[in-house]
Design brief:
- The complex is a heterodimer of chains A (about 400) and B (about 230).
- Chain A contains ten helices and 23 strands.
- Chain A is of the alpha+beta class and about 400 residues long.
- Chain A is globular and about 65 Å long.
- Chain B has helices spanning about 5-40, 40-55, 60-70, 75-85, 90-115, 120-130, 135-145, 145-160, 165-170, 180-190, 195-229.
- In chain B, helix 10 (about 180-190) packs antiparallel against helix 11 (about 195-230).
- Chain B is globular and about 65 Å long.
- Classes of the chains: A alpha+beta (about 400), B mainly alpha (about 230).
Chain lengths: ~400, ~230
């Protein structure tokens, strides 16, 4: 990866300005500053983000992730802020010259303009001619039918799709998204996540996605930054981060790992598709064929990559391969790490064909089975969620172009 | 025709005064109202109260103090005299200054309330799209607060048309220079010329009424229009 293309980010002390939209919220959090002229929000983050794909900023609400995003956009100022996107120093520039696309939590569409008027507002002011065309953006977000509508008469999900399209039409250097799904009802979320996946495949610019929803993040992100109380806790590639037992994300009830798998074949008789965990090309044989998952039939070709998500609470551990079980997916693995969550529960990290799978089990079982690192076990996996649904439905973005 | 040539002159003078005053008021009132709608400083309430004073003070009080300020012995009057070679008192320019002060709350208050209802988050969004200050003002603030602008302009204009007390104090009664409609009307009544007084009074009444119908009709249409769209 070209280092010049990366985003260098260093924010040390964020200053929330007088009159800022964000100020009210920050004041609530720091009452001792309420009488001061400005409410300071302590923020110290230093990170390097990849120059392509989606970087997620994750953390509990109030941890400063939105403030960080606003610092990047210049909507808040920080005492020490260094910001370099693709080789361009943008700290110190006013908001309008930073050339970043920003999708807010609320859609912020202009109510006096139609959907197309909103898109044109951005397109007329675009930062360069190298950005995507109007037709492309409209197709990616599937908003052709909405162009003549008024923003007030769109659903939450539609509004947010238009807002994303509008931000893209300025041809930004980077697209910043601040919990764009927060105000969208759960049914409308999946389509938007799919659209965002489409964008990631088609855009050459990086996207920074702020969310407190781990589920959204595992589906979208390539890179993860975890924040807490204004500090950076950890950052790294998503797949590594989700299996790091020193991080809180792996101890949560909803913890899950994400695996990259490869389609090895279809079982037409039972309408299933076999996925291999080892990504080495070539026909899987012998021991390799053990590390396979069966999922409902996919439309992809053998060899295609599929991203799957395995929740740690849906994985149980057996010392011998269970022969009489309804669970299809039983994988052999070697325990690489064990971490107690509390008195009752533990997480066990297992290495399966080079990838990590977590199992959330009770401490009682842990002791009963005498589990320890290096031990050979069998993982019974109850659910495998497909993340790259794009492959399943033959969604336009995976067309070979 | 019951109108005298002097009445026609007074009519045009009044319209001219109202037009000039409205233009100046919009130019001063919009930034002032914007600042008042955003500022949280205690100083802002002092300014707000000052702007609102003409609403409750008798016009003669304002006129009296303006007359004194306009005197060449005082700063305003003397600097105006040095700059333009003309005095402020008993001139058209003096009337414009007086009208601007007297009608200021009628322009600032509707604008301020419009700006307060304006969603400032939209400006942030526009800023991230590269829109500068003037761009945002022309393409977001004005179209989204156009009702406030229309209300402010019409009220400022109509209120200046009907001004009497202040004009009497600082303008006197010079035909073609400071004799506005309300003064001409007063003259006719004093001379017991009720016929011509009716013409002027009735004319002002009908005009003001029509202006207000126009204003409220416009606002109502916009409201229902927004719902239907």
């Amino acid at each position: 990866m070209n280092v010049d293309k990366n985003i260098q980010l260093s924010v040390e002390h964020c200053y929330v300005q007088e009159g800022s939209v964000q100020k009210e919220r920050v004041r609530k959090k720091s009452p001792q500053k309420a009488n001061g002229q400005e409410a300071d929000f302590s923020l110290a983050v230093k990170a390097q983000l990849p120059g392509k794909g989606i970087t997620a900023i994750y953390g509990p609400s109030g941890c400063g992730k939105t403030t960080l995003l606003r610092c990047i956009a210049g909507l808040e100022s920080a005492e020490h802020c260094q910001l370099n996107i693709g080789g361009n120093e943008i700290d110190g520039l006013p908001v309008k010259q930073r050339q970043l696309g920003y999708v807010f939590q609320e859609d912020r569409l202009f109510p006096h303009l139609s959907v197309e008027g909103n898109l044109d507002f951005a397109f007329k002011r675009r930062f360069s001619d190298n950005g995507p065309s109007k037709q492309q953006v409209i197709a990616w977000l599937d908003i052709e039918a909405l162009l003549d509508r008024e923003p007030d008469h769109l659903s939450g999900g539609q509004k947010q799709r238009v807002a994303i399209a509008r931000a893209l039409l300025t041809a930004p250097r980077c697209l910043l998204l601040d919990e764009p799904l927060a105000g969208v009802d759960s049914k409308a979320r999946n389509p938007i996540l799919r659209h965002l996946g489409t964008l990631a495949e088609n855009l050459s610019i990086p996207m920074v996605y702020v969310s407190h929803n781990l589920d959204e993040i595992t589906r979208l992100a390539d890179h993860l930054i975890i924040m807490d109380q204004g500090r950076l806790v950890a950052d790294g590639p998503l797949l590594d981060m989700l299996s790091r037992l020193d991080l809180d994300v792996t101890r949560q009830e909803g913890a899950a790992v994400v695996l990259n798998t490869r389609i090895v074949g279809h079982d037409d008789r039972y309408s299933l598709t076999q996925l291999a965990l080892s990504l080495d090309s070539g026909v899987s044989s012998g021991s390799g064929s053990d590390a396979q998952l069966s999922v409902g039939q996919l439309s992809g070709e053998p060899g295609n990559t599929v991203r799957v998500r395995i929740p740690s609470r849906d994985v149980s551990i057996a010392l011998e391969r269970p022969s009489q079980s309804s669970i299809l997916n039983i994988l052999p693995g070697v325990i690489s790490e064990i971490e107690l969550i509390d008195g009752a529960r533990a997480v066990v990290k297992t290495d399966v064909a080079g990838q990590a799978i977590l199992a959330r089990i009770t401490r009682k079982s842990l002791e009963h089975l005498q589990l320890e690192t290096g031990k050979q076990v069998y993982l019974q996996i109850k659910t495998v969620a497909l993340l790259s649904e794009t492959l399943v439905s033959g969604y336009p973005c995976i067309r070979n172009t | 025709m019951n109108l005298l040539a002097s009445d026609i002159t007074a009519l045009f003078l009044t319209l001219q005064l109202a037009a000039v005053t409205t233009v100046i008021l919009m130019a001063i009132g919009a930034p002032l109202a914007w600042w008042l709608s955003r500022s949280t400083s205690r100083f802002a309430s002092v300014i707000e109260a000052t702007v609102a004073l003409p609403l409750i003070l008798p016009p003669t009080v304002i006129g009296f103090y303006l007359l004194i300020a306009f005197s060449p012995d005082n700063f305003l009057g003397s600097s105006w005299l040095t700059l333009t070679g003309q005095p402020l008192a008993f001139t058209f320019s003096g009337l414009v200054v007086g009208s601007v002060i007297y009608s200021l709350p009628f322009v600032v208050q509707p604008l301020q309330s419009g700006f307060q209802h304006f969603d400032h988050k939209l400006l942030e969004a526009a800023e991230t799209m590269g829109a500068g200050t003037l761009d945002r003002f022309l393409n977001l603030i004005i179209p989204l607060t156009r009702r406030a602008f229309a209300t402010a302009a019409l009220l400022g204009f109509a209120h200046t048309m009907g001004e009497f007390g202040v004009v009497l104090m600082i303008g006197g009664n010079i035909p073609g220079e400071t004799q506005v409609l309300s003064i001409a009307l007063y003259d006719h009544v004093e001379a017991l010329d009720y016929g011509r007084a009716h013409w002027l009074a009735g004319g002002l009444l009908v005009f003001s009424f029509a202006l207000l119908i126009l204003l409220y009709g416009f606002n109502r249409h916009k409201k229902s229009g927004a719902k239907q769209l």
